[in-house]
Automatic annotation (TrEMBL):
Keyword annotations of the record: Hydrolase, Manganese, Metal-binding, Nucleus, Protein phosphatase, Repeat, TPR repeat
Single GO molecular function: metal ion binding
Subcellular location: Nucleus
PANTHER family reported for this sequence: SERINE/THREONINE-PROTEIN PHOSPHATASE 5-RELATED (PTHR45668), SERINE_THREONINE-PROTEIN PHOSPHATASE 5 (PTHR45668:SF5)
Active-site residues (renumbered): H303
Top-rank taxon, per record: Eukaryota
Pfam families, per database record: Metallophos, PPP5, TPR_8
Main location: nucleus
Species, as recorded: Ogataea polymorpha
Protein name per Swiss-Prot or TrEMBL: Serine/threonine-protein phosphatase
Length: 499
């Protein structure tokens, strides 16, 4: 190796390290890649794996860790980073195997010790849950006895009118209650447990009645017979991931308008996990759904699932703030959420993306039986609606996440043509500018959690739809993060798994 080339590779590595420390992960990957092209080393691959982990590209992180280990079987950081990436995609046994390799050679490594304890705990928890699992005849929500609840004496806000008929819960939600709830959350308070269970149970009744793909639009004659249209609605706003960033959700409504008769909102999944105010975000969205059932819609995301909630904070947050039973109720309500929405018969909105088969059509989404199992299947169109990502090249390829797959512009164009769609709108990935128009304008990624996890520095964005001359006008608006109390992401999680 020419010493000058080796020196240049080291220089690029050091620059990459600086970008990594500054949370400029894309730039760090670019610099590490340039260094690898000149002089590949285990350290470079391992460092690039760390940047990929920060971007949640866990599949790519595993590939880089594999390359690092191939170059140097004794480089322990590569095993540790592969373990972190495996744990992120729920491959706990593979993760534990790598951690044990680290500890066999460096038994005092504190990071590996912590990760081992977390992995053993969750593996044992999963074994225990499987051992005691039985087919439940009823639902957790149906088992709630609201007469047994008393509202905590410390609560000073408005009452909530709760009715239960034939185990169906309904709530007469008011704007006064929501305003008081928001003020309470801003002060670090909690709503009464009776109210919490009632809001989830009543919202679940509404979600259950919705089809797997909700179809709505602004009022125009050409599609009136095919979808719900509200006379007074003038605008539709689509939001991407919000991930428990409660104060940024409040800012969305402040900047772009409140949910109301004139303004429809669609939240495109992943409203819980990561951020430490996931309960607050969920209660706000559910309460708005109760107040304006036809003016706010919520798609399911890959984080509205038990596996992800165990790892990324929502389950532990529910237990800490309310109870384990409330998490079970939220889980049940997530299973009732639609998988997709169709706006104006022209724009399909789902959390993840398109499919591994060219034969999927809109009617296949309409026919999904989301109550067949308690959690989404590990394969098929339900999984793909939640997990897949776009790629620049044509065709399909393995996912950079390690779960699902990636689809190219030709797949998007073909799907839109066969289903007579103008575009696909999806979320699921951070975009530094808040949104990105891809695949020759036929696919849009929108992400609405600015400065994601208090470290990415990205903008948030929304997509606004209005009508002009009976045609939809699509506009994109961005926003920055707002201040929040000094509570870090995943503050309540017992399973940080090193990431």
């Amino acid at each position: 190796m020419d010493p000058k080339l080796e020196e240049r590779s080291t220089e690029l590595k050091n620059l990459g390290n600086q970008e990594l420390k500054s949370n400029n992960f894309d730039k760090a990957i670019e610099l590490y890649t340039q260094a690898i092209d000149i002089f590949p080393t285990a350290i470079l691959y391992s460092n690039r794996a760390q940047a990929q982990i920060k971007l949640e590209n866990y599949g790519l992180a595993i590939e880089d860790a594999n390359q690092a280990i191939k170059l140097d079987k004794n480089y322990l950081k590569a095993y540790y980073r592969r373990a972190v990436a495996y744990s992120a995609i729920l491959e706990y046994k593979k993760s534990l195997s790598d951690v044990k390799i680290v500890l066999s050679r460096a038994p005092s490594d504190k990071n590996a010790q912590v990760l081992e304890k977390q992995l053993v705990r969750i593996i044992n928890q999963i074994k225990f849950e499987k051992a005691i699992a039985v087919e439940e005849k009823g639902s957790t929500i149906a088992s709630i006895d609201f007469d047994s609840f008393t509202v905590e004496s410390s609560y000073q806000g408005p009452d909530l009118d709760i009715k239960v008929e034939d185990k169906r819960v309904s709530v007469a939600m008011t704007q006064e209650y929501i305003s008081n709830m928001v003020d309470l959350f801003r002060k670090g308070g909690k709503i009464p447990k009776k109210h919490a269970f009632a809001i989830v149970a009543a919202a679940n009744e509404i979600f259950k009645e919705q089809p797997p793909m909700v179809e709505f639009g602004l009022k125009r004659p050409s599609t009136a017979a095919k979808e719900l249209q509200l006379e007074e609605a003038k605008k539709i706003t689509v939001c991407g991931d919000t991930h428990g960033q409660f104060y940024d959700v409040l800012n969305i409504f402040k900047r772009f308008g409140k949910v109301g008769k004139n303004h429809i909102y669609l939240f495109n999944g992943d409203f819980v996990d990561r951020g430490s105010w996931s309960c607050e975000v969920a209660f706000l969205l559910y309460s708005l759904k109760l107040l304006y059932p036809q003016n706010i819609y919520i798609n399911r995301g890959n984080h509205e699932t038990n596996d992800m909630n165990k790892v990324y904070g929502f389950e532990d947050e529910c237990k800490y703030k309310y109870s384990e039973k409330l998490f079970s109720c939220f889980s049940e309500s997530f299973n009732s959420l639609p998988y997709a929405s169709l706006i104006g018969q022209e724009y399909l909105v789902m959390h993840g993306g398109l499919f591994s088969s060219d034969n999927v059509v809109l009617d296949d989404i309409r026919k999904i039986d989301r109550f067949k199992s308690k959690q989404p299947p590990k394969e098929g169109i339900e999984m793909e609606l939640l997990w897949t990502d776009p790629q620049e090249s044509k065709g399909r390829s393995a996912s950079k996440r390690g779960i699902g797959m990636q689809f190219g512009p030709d797949v998007t164009a073909d799907f839109c043509e066969r289903n007579k769609l103008k575009a696909i709108i999806r979320s699921h990935e951070v975009r530094m500018g808040g949104y990105e128009i891809e695949h020759d304008g036929k696919l849009v990624t929108v992400f609405s959690a600015p400065n994601y996890c208090d470290m990415q520095g990205n903008l948030g964005a929304v997509v606004n739809f209005t009508l002009k001359d009976d045609e939809y006008e699509v506009e994109y608006a961005t926003f920055t993060h707002v201040d929040h109390p000094n509570i870090p992401p995943m503050n309540y999680s017992k399973n940080n798994f090193g990431f």
